Amino acid sequence: MANIVSSRAAQEAVELSIVMPCLDEAETLETCVKKANSYLEDNGVEGEVIVADNGSTDCSQEIARSLGARVVYVPEQGYGNSLMGGIAAARGKYVIMGDADDSYDFLSLEPFLAKLREGYDLVMGNRFKGGIEPGDSPPLHRHFVNTVLSGIGHLFFRSPVGDVHCGLRGFNKESIQQLDLQAMGMEFASEMVVKATMHDLRIAEVPASLTHNGRSRPPHLNRWKDVWQYLRFLLVFSPRWLFFYPGILITLVGSAAMLAWVISGPIKIGHVGFDINTMLIAAMLIVLGIQIVYFAIFSKVYGVTTRLVPSNSTIDRFMGAFTLERGLFIGGVICLLGLSGLIATFVIWSSETFGVLAPSKIMRITIPSFALMVIGVQTIFASFFLSILDLKKGKEIKAGSIPARFSPFYYGSRLFSVVGIINETTSIIILLKDGARYLDDLVRVLASQTHQKDVELIVVDSGSSDGSVERLEELCERYGIELNLVTIEPHEFGHGKTRNFALDLARGEIVVTLSQDALPVSETWLDDLVRPLEDETVAGVFGRQIPRPGTGFCESHFYEVTYPLESRRIDGEDGSSFSNLQLFFSNVNGAIRKSLALAHPFRSDLVMSEDQFWGRAMLHRGYAIVYEPKATVLHSHSYTLAQLFKRYFKSGYSMRQMEMRGNVVRGGARTTLMLLEQVLFKCPWRLPEVIEYQATLGTAWLCGKHDLLPRRLRDSLLGL
Known about the structure:
Layout: H1 4-13, E1 16-22, H2 26-42, E2 47-53, H3 60-66, E3 70-73, H4 79-89, E4 94-97, H5 110-117, E5 122-126, H6 127-130, H7 139-157, E6 169-172, H8 173-177, H9 188-198, E7 203-207, H10 223-236, H11 239-264, E8 267-269, E9 272-274, H12 276-305, H13 313-321, H14 324-351, H15 359-389, H16 409-412, E10 426-432, H17 436-447, E11 455-461, H18 468-479, E12 482-487, H19 495-505, E13 510-514, E14 519-520, H20 525-530, E15 538-546, H21 553-562, E16 568-570, E17 589-593, H22 594-599, H23 610-620, E18 624-634, H24 641-658, H25 664-682, H26 687-705, H27 711-718
Parallel strand pairs: 1-2, 1-4, 2-3, 5-7, 10-11, 10-13, 11-12, 15-18
Antiparallel strand pairs: 4-6, 5-6, 8-9, 13-17, 14-18, 15-17, 16-18
Helix pairs in contact: 2-3, 7-10, 11-12, 12-15, 14-15, 17-18, 24-26, 25-26
């Protein structure tokens, strides 16, 4: 952060990023990173090695850092999530991805880079051309599964790739990010190939050798499960093969059978006779087949209008010719044909004085007529549904408007450059107390931010005794971070009071508040957090919080509910009530305007939740508060029951101090019901734990909110 200009220039100079997904790969990671570094050095390539760590519990992260690799922590589990995080953090124009198990040779990347330099968007490795070491891949998978699935991919999408599952591949970062890849698991690699083919990207193949990996443990993948996921992915992304072709086949079979019995009457083949019962089955097949064909049309139109899949000339012509009126007309004509048949049967019945009719004769008219009536009604309502889907046709979908369910890096890559709000300093405020265990990671991540403005770090320490101050000074000197360190006595600390004091020290108009135990997960965290303040009607921004690995089930659910993936803007009319389902602001991970905070400071008398009161005050003054999930931090606690009671007693008491009204209890009840529903249907064995947790939380909050405890105990819990 101390030298933004040079760091930005260095970023632009990076040509190639080598990304390795990692989950407990300590046995082989060192070999892979060394090979990748050697390739870059030996070939004079300006590049970097990125290890996208997915929650390793061995020493993988330390190994990567010791060898000069950049470690990107991706909290959401999954092969696809890990790669999306690493790709979004990559600084290179080109990216080559490969597994960190030493099964691919990172010394032999020149063919990939050469093709990328020629202008290809995606360069796939082909293990069948490069060679598979005996024993690395079972013969069934090598000669049958991979070949068949690659063939299916070619059949469904006309993909030129002969080895769709090869994990070693290179691509132009900008081209691939435009594909909006979303698969979280192993099917991510397949999604890349399929979407690249559908969007007519330039694709090439080069030989890639596969050797026996160096792990002593089994691989993370489940071969047959992954095969099914890939096949499922192909079907879902190809409405033609999933719906249209089966629907047409079923319709043709049913129609042929129907016409045979309508025209010629009963048919006997050997000793087997076919008559009106078979005709009934044929009618069912026709109705079913046409409905499946409609599903194919719905799927394709939806995919095109939401840009999940590219359009093509066929669907363009269809939607150009389709109108609701034409659909209604066609459906109406079909209904009239069916109705005419039913009227004919009524006339025949009346001619027999409404007596008993021979089923083998009358049903030859009744069954086709009913089938036509059903098909007509299907067509009418299908036309209405298509018209609803077509409402979005021609409208541009803004980047990030469709909520992503993946890693925060997924968003960061889409708005990588940011226009500075003003050419001044951005101030980051951290309140410190015995936080030495957090500082190494925290300062390292702050130093890696891509923020283009000068940044100052203001830290107020309130009596640390674990060496936090000394460690912080050492780290800031190492990373070249401008540090303004102030110490106060422990009794002088107050959440609102101390933040107001730090605000007076800030040089920047934009002030970021960050807890000492909140760790940003992206190099674009600071840019993402301050960007909404470009709108002068926005007073503050707060970002997403996700729990650290190992956080308890109940607390993890709290963060999931309170900090969703969808961004939102909270305006004045939304600030009349409060619950954790509608958070006004958070100082754990927030950004505010200094001028507003000085004019309307945090309340210094509150035991906590000073940020909530400030957020509500800004809403009442006509400003907006923005929740920005792109700006994500790791932050959570592992409370004992005693600590949990104290924490929520304070929360309830602060609500009492603020005289906060509205749907607080209702919101808490809804959260509890959501948690219980999730437990009952997914993990009922956790029910005792959840009941204990929620009972403690609810009791503590109510005791604080209504001041139900004896004064001495209350003051002890409040730290007075």
